[in-house]
Every structure is written in C-alpha cells, then in structure tokens.
C-alpha cells in the first residue's frame, strides 16, 4: 500500500513539474488592435481555436480604438505587436523614425466598407451618387481615402459632384445616417447588414471590391522587436496562417460560431452574413504574405487622396521573411 501511495505521489510530482515547465515556456505577446471588428475574424479564430496556444503563445489582446492610439501604444512599448492599417507605418516612417514600424503579416487585403443607400435601388450605378448627400468616413483615414479613390475611378468628383460630409465622428456615423443625415453612407460591417435587416438602408456596392487589393490591416511591430524576438514572431505568424487556412476551409456559419463569443451584442445570423460577404469578396487574406503590388496600390490610393507624406519603398517597411517561412512560399 505504501509503495502504491509513493508511486502515486511521484507521478503527481512529475505531472506538476511538467505542467509548470510548460507554463514557464509560454510566451506572452501583447497585441493591440485598432478596433474590434468581424473584419478581423481570422485573428479571433486563432484565439478561439487555440492556434496561439499550440505555438506556446499567450496573446493578450487590447482594443486601442484608433490608428493614432494604436501606434502610440506600439511606439511607447505598451504593446509588442499592432493590428492596424499599413498606412500608419508610412506616417511614422515619414516623420523620421529611428526604429521603423515593420509590416510582417497581412490579415485583410481589401477595404471593409460598403456603400449603403437610404432608398432601395435595384440596379445601382455609381453615377447615381451625383447631386446627392454622401456621409463619408473621417478625413485622412483609410476608409475615406478608399472612398474618394473609388468615386474618382467612377468619374465622380467628391468635392463638386456631391455633398460630402466628413465631420461626423466614426462612432456616430451610423446614428447620424439613421436619424436622417445623408442619402448614402459608407459603413463598416456589421452596421451595414444590421441596417439592411432593419430596413434602414440597403447595401448597393462594396468599396473593397471596387478599390482592389491593398494591405488594409496588417500585423506590425518595431524593427527592434522583430530582431530580438524572431522566434516569437514566427510562432505568431504561424498561428495566424493556421487561422487563415481554417477560415478558408470552413463555412461562414462555422466561423461565426467560432468567433461569436467576441461579439456578444451581435446576433449570430448577422455575424454569419458579414463573414460570408467578406469571404465572397476576398477580404480575408489567404496567407500572411504582403506583396509589393498591394503595397504600391495602397500608396496610389493615399497619393490620390493627398494624404501620402512620402512614397516609401516596399523593402523599407515590409518584411515577408516570417510569412514565407511558415507558408513555404
């Protein structure tokens, strides 16, 4: 009996030691996201399906609500990695950063906004925007730059062909439209689908489809962090790639169920509708590699909007080493 108890005690000690060892090997990564959105579904899949854990990472996610706040967090060492629009790294570089912010893994590759009409339009034509009131996004932000770029592509001058409203705060744009401001509005999901379900608006076009591929949101970090934590960054990128593949291989319904705990205030059918829409238009990048064509398209859009401080070479702010290693490309 004593021998059996002794062996049981020894087994307990061994299991406890192994568990403690595994816990000590878990690496903490502080991740700041610019906003909390279904647009970032693969990230939440990586969390919910345990892909970060499989790589030995403990990812602490914080929503920083805004590109400027996200970059402040990264630059001040309040976070290790940021998920934000690639344009922010260009702004920082143009200011003369001594520790460049490097884009190392792409999450989304189209704009995520939609054109919503107050009235139902069976066969929408972009020229129908002329002479209307258009409630756009904040000036200088990527959604607004894409919005203006698309309008110009369709021979519409945002300054003279319509009344462009840009002075409404991002969080208040949906309520402004709902209360009667604007004939058309540029909205992110899930608000666009919610309005459609409630009969308050009708989705007539996608800015993401019209603008082409761009590195809309990417994971980025200081160059120094990438050098000092190369193995951690590789593990992080591996988990993201696993999640990207999982999203591609599974139905919108399954993805919606996986990430639903992240959006407790949004009905499951809306989450599914949004995911299906983003999947159909190719918004979710299938791998974390940010290619040069997309980078150049981003700068073309910024330049067209008059918001590009300086043209930055692809090699200066993009590092695809980790993404290429984990994908084998």
> Under the CATH scheme, which class of the largest domain?
Alpha Beta
Task: Give helix % range.
Answer: 40-55%
CA(first)-CA(last) distance: 59 Å
Q: Which blocks of ≥5 consecutive residues have pLDDT under 50? A: 2-10, 15-23
- In order across it, which strands form the biggest sheet? 2-1-3-10-4
Question: Superfamily at the CATH H level of the largest domain?
Answer: Periplasmic binding protein-like II
Net shape: globular
Main location: periplasm
Subcellular location: Periplasm
Family: Belongs to the bacterial solute-binding protein SsuA/TauA family.
Keywords: Signal
How does this structure look, described?
It is a single chain. The longest helix has 24 residues, at about 1-25. It is built from 16 helices and 10 strands. It is of the alpha/beta class. Helix 6 (about 140-155) links the parallel strand 6 (about 135) and strand 7 (about 165). The model is unreliable at about 1-10 and about 15-25 (pLDDT under 50). Helix 2 packs across helix 11 (about 230-250). The chain folds into 2 domains: about 25-110 and about 215-325, D-Maltodextrin-Binding Protein, domain 2 (3-Layer(aba) Sandwich); about 115-210, D-Maltodextrin-Binding Protein, domain 2, CATH 3.40.190.10. Strands 2-1-3-10-4 form a 5-stranded mixed β-sheet, sandwiched between helices. The protein has a 5-stranded mixed β-sheet with strand order 7-6-8-5-9, sandwiched between helices.
